[in-house]
Amino acid sequence: MIDSAIPDATGATAAAGVFAGALSGDLSEERIAELSEQQLVDLITACEDAKCRLEAAQATAAVALDTATRTRHREQGVPARRIGEGVAAQIGLARRISPHKASRLLGLATILTREMPATLALMRAGRLSEWRATILARETACLDLEHRRRVDLELAGTGRAAELGDRELEATAKKLAYTLDAHAVVARAARAETERSVTIRPAPDLMSYVTALLPMKQGVAVYAALKAVADTASATGHTGGAGDDRSRGQVMADTLVERVTGRAAGAPARIDLRLVMTDRALLAPDGPGGDAPALVPGYGPVPAEWARTAVTRALTDTLTEAQVFLKRLFTHPLSGQLVAMDSRSRTAPAGLAEFITLRDGGICRNPHCGAPIRHLDHIQRYADGGPTSAANLQGLCERCNQAKEAPGWQARPGPDGSITITTATGHTYRSRPPDPWPTTRPLVNLVLANDYALTA
Fold first, then answer.
1. Quick one: CA dihedral 314, 318, 321, 325, positive or negative?
2. Alpha carbon 15 to chain centroid distance?
3. Any idea what the Cα angle at residue 292 is, between residues 332 and 298, rounded to 5°?
4. 324 and 314 in contact (C-beta within 8 Å)?
5. CA–CA dist 281, 56 (Å, integer)
6. Fewer Cβ close by (within 10 Å): the C or N end of the chain?
7. CA 282, CA 439: separation in Å to the nearest integer?
8. pLDDT in tens, 247-286
9. Beta bridge partners of 323
C-alpha cells in the first residue's frame, strides 16, 4: 500500500520510508530534509493521495455508525423523531470538528455511499478530496437519483473530476445538471431565494465578518452600488477635488454601514456590549495585572487598552445616551475560575443564567463546537439527581444540547470546572474549563448600553 502510493522514481524508497513514518506519527524534520527535491514532491503527492483515501474511509465509517445507531435506537424503542440523534455530535467529537460541520459531512457521506459510488471510488483511489466530492454532491443535489448517477459516472467514473480545478468542476457539474433537468435547476434556484440571510462571526483584530446570502441579482446590485461610491471618491481625488484618503475597500465598507444603519460610519450605534475585565485592568492600568485582556462573551479576548477606551467613551460622551452598568464577578483564589456574581443591576437579571453565559464566554462548552450559547442545561441530568447550580450547569448551542439527550450519552462535571462527556459507544471526551482569570480579586462585568460608538 505504501510503496504503491510513491511514484516509481529514483530514491522512492527513501520517500516511502518517510511516508510510513508520517502515518505512524514518527514525522522527523531531519529525515524529510535529507530527501531530494524529486523525493519531496513524491512525498507530498503520496500524503495527498493518502488523505483522499482516509477521507473515503471516514465517510464509509460515518455511514456505518449512523446505520448501527439507528438500528440500536429502533430496537430500544426510541421515538421516531429521535432516531439517529447524537450521531453527528459523536462524529464531530471523533474528528475534532463542530457538530454542525460533522452533520454536513455525514450527509455527504450518505450521498456518496448510496447515490454517488463513482465519486467515492475516486476518493478511495486517492484521486479526489472530500471537498471536491462536496462540490459534486452540492451541484447535483437538485437532480433525481438517475440523473445524479449519470453525472457521477460522467465526471467521476471517467476520472475527469480529478483533472479539473475546483471552479471548472463546479461549472461542469452545473452544466451537466442543467442539461439533464433544467426544471430542477430552476426550481432549486427559486427555493434558494427563501434561504437568504445575514450572519455575523468574529474576525481577527477586533473585526467581524457580516455576510449576506442574497439572490444573485440583489448581490450584484449591492456590490455595484458600493463600488460606484468608491469609484466616485477615487475620481474626486484624482481630479484635484477634496479627494478621499480612504482605500476603495474602506469606502465600500463605510458606505455599507451608513446605508444600513442610517448613521455615519463613525457615529454611535445603538448596541449593548458586555465587557468582562479585572478591576486592575479597568482602574489601575499601570500597575501589576493592568494589561490583562478583557473578554467580550461570544467574541473572545480583547486588549485591555481597547476595553478601557470603550468604557471611557461610554462614560464621557455627552452626545449620546450611553450608560454603563457594573457587576462584580468573583474568582476562585487558587484556580482563577469564576465562582460567583453580584446580582445588582438596574433591571433584575436572570442571575445564574447570566453568570453561566459569562463564565463560558458565550461559546458552547462542547469540544470543537464554537457556536454561540443558545441553551443552558444541566451537565448531570436533573432527572438523575444533578443539582441546579453553577457547577452543574453549562452553556450549549441548540445542536449540542439535543445531542446530549441521545440514548447512552452521559456527562459529569469535574472539580476543576471541566466536563467529561461519555458517548453511546463508550468514548470519553473532556471539555476543559474556561480559561482562568489572572487575578484573585473581583472582576468587573460592564454593560455598555444604548447609543455607543465601538471604534477603538
1. positive
2. 35
3. 80
4. yes
5. 50
6. N
7. 13
8. 989 999 999 999 998 877 666 555 566 777 777 787 778 8
9. 449
